[in-house]
Amino acid sequence: MKLSIATHFSHGGAYSAKTADDLLRLIDDLGVQNVRDGLSWARVEASPGQYDFDAWREGYADTLADAGFDLTLTFMARNPLYDGGKTAHSAEGIAAFADYVAATLDRFPDIQRIAIGNEFNGLNDSFVSGPAASNDLTVRAEHQTRILKAVHDRLADDHPDVAIIGGAMHSTPTGYVSHLIEAGAMAYMDHLDIHPYGLDPSEAAQAFERLNAVLDEVPAEIRPTLVATEFGQSAVAGDPLSNADYLTKMAAVMSAAGFEMAAWYALLDEDRSGTPDMGLYQSRSEANDMVAGFRFVADLLDRAGRAVEVDLGAGLEAYRFEDGTMMVWGSAQAISIEGRDLAFLSADGRPIPRPERIDDSVVVVTGREIEISAGDGPGVLADSFYDFSLDPDGDTSWSYHAEKTARGKTGIIDLEVMDGQDRMADLWNPYLGGTHFRPFAVTAKTVRPADFNDYGTNERAVVERFTVEESGALDIVASYDLARSSTDGVVLELRLNGETIKAVKIDGRKVIALRDVTVEAGDELDFVVRDGGSDNGDVLTRHVRILEADPARSTESLVHEHSVTDIIDGNETPPPLESGEEDLDVVRGTPGGETLLGGAGDDTLVGGAGNDLLVAGAGDDALRGNEGDDRLEAGAGRDRLYGGQGQDVLVGGEGTARMKGEAGDDRLISGLGKDVMIGGEGADTFEFRELSGNDIIKDLDAEDGDVIDLGGLDLASADQVRIATAGTRTFLEVDQGDGWDMLTRLEGDVAGLPSGGAQAVENGLIVL
């Protein structure tokens, strides 16, 4: 595969005749020979049948040829002289367009490759308009085929060796490709053009595999090869080399998929566009950080030959080139690299130390007899992103299903491959789903449940199933980010062999970790996502890793590494686990014990049967301990704590907390805010460590064994404690040396309480 660069000499402006020499030097310095650009039909043919190439924007091809560059020229079928300026659709308009293409090739005989149209399947009316822009994609493909055929037939005699690039499609729309095949378009092109925007390289590998499977249905004599006259992405803020990393990975993926040429978009930044920071240069005098990476990849593709994908196991992406060079990246884990004369390079070609761990940053390995494998120690068993497969029969531990609930019955449906943009409203890249339950969809990054009669009476929940291969213990860490368009959130349910082990409401961003989960070979672990009542906007980005259990590793370390290497934008610099600044739920061990941490939103944290730790975040949270001896900690919001069964500890925070111990002998600890404490059944202890003066004990009952613990205060004797009344209200007051202060209001069985602190201490009601 050859690397190319997209330019805009036909637009003028920064690509003017005055800047041309400087820009050509930049292109030459990149190490590429091919340039992709365009031409304005309206400027060339301002009068019917009269072609003028004298101006710079129409004649720049001569300058490129003189400098030794090959030009891939894109032609757009729009001219105000024909069909009202819309995309040519009449016989006259299409014939005129074919004549214009032929005239251009007559004028510039060095041009050997042309692209007909640009993103013909898209929604940009600058690229396709009028009847050709029909939302009926069968009709649109037929229009495009008529244009391709006219150009093909017009060039057959005078320019038979010029290669025609067709398709010119945004994304990897395998469904639209099928429409082109049915329309007969493949007979009129040499190359099929894909602009694979919006896909991570790992996703692109799956999409290209599906694309090649669709093209395999085309007779060999007319099957086009693949090119990309555009690809690229905007640099990630704070990560100037993100583009180089993306380019290096895509080079391997596209080479392995059989692409012959790929043009990076673009030479110069277009900061005023909707896609800034894609250019190799900020200006003709200022290079962006990824230039070194582009040179490195261009040279690698020239010398290393074609790439092939190598299967290294769960969570790893790897490619080997013909000269032995390898690339590897993937799910965070230890890695082993062996061989002779080894060198290790980053995405921009800089030497780096031998890596002991791998993550989502690509590592390039040169040398001889290179062998790469997962490293020693607890490893990755499955990764929802890197191990995702569009092949239902693929070699993976994951399988994908829909759980259908309708008319009171529930059943499981296996998913099928849905080709991208089979309909205009479909996803434009291939995905997993079902013909009869759109918009349900599963991709490597996202899941989208569907509900056809709100509140579960006719719904399709997403089921991602991991089948355990070996008995043992697992650590599971997963991050989620729900689209802001969701109206009522989604529910995530984790099941082990059909039994629910965790259910979490997701209405924003969450990270969940399960530690030391015991499983047997053949067990099924299901990650089930259903709508929260309505499926409006319920697109959930997720990244799940299933690991061999590592008891020596802290949950904080596990979650941190996952967060900074997952696919969710914004997790690159997560807060410390204990901060609660993110929507974060952490679960340790099930069913033995759990830890749930609330985030910035309004969370509901529900413990299980074990001894659980539930910690509220910044929002207004509800914490329910349920069975077991639990510890519930309030946060900065207006929180509600319910201990449930067992001997529970409920702790107030900085905000307002309503604490209810419920059954069992519970301990309720006042915080800094205004707390309402209700012990419930059993002999409860109400503990004070700070003097907030805003608290209420609602059900104090000395006969049931309730106790007020003041051991956390600076009190030397019982004389510093008293019980006072004001009207019908009863208060507990303390004197810490500067006068009497109210500690808490007392309610419940308070009629017979002694007024003196000494007697209360002596009777055991108050503990100092």
UniProtKB/TrEMBL annotation:
Its main location: membrane. InterPro entries: GH, Hemolysin-typ_Ca-bd_CS, Hemolysn_Ca-bd, RTX_toxin/Mannuronan_C5-epim, RTX_toxin_determinant-A, Serralysin-like_metalloprot_C. It comes from the Bacteria. Transmembrane segments: none annotated. Pfam families: HemolysinCabind. PROSITE patterns: HEMOLYSIN_CALCIUM (PS00330). It is found in: Membrane; Secreted. One of its GO terms (cellular component) is extracellular region. GO terms for molecular function: calcium ion binding; toxin activity. Keywords: Membrane, Repeat, Secreted, Toxin, Virulence. This is HlyA_1 protein. It comes from Jannaschia aquimarina.
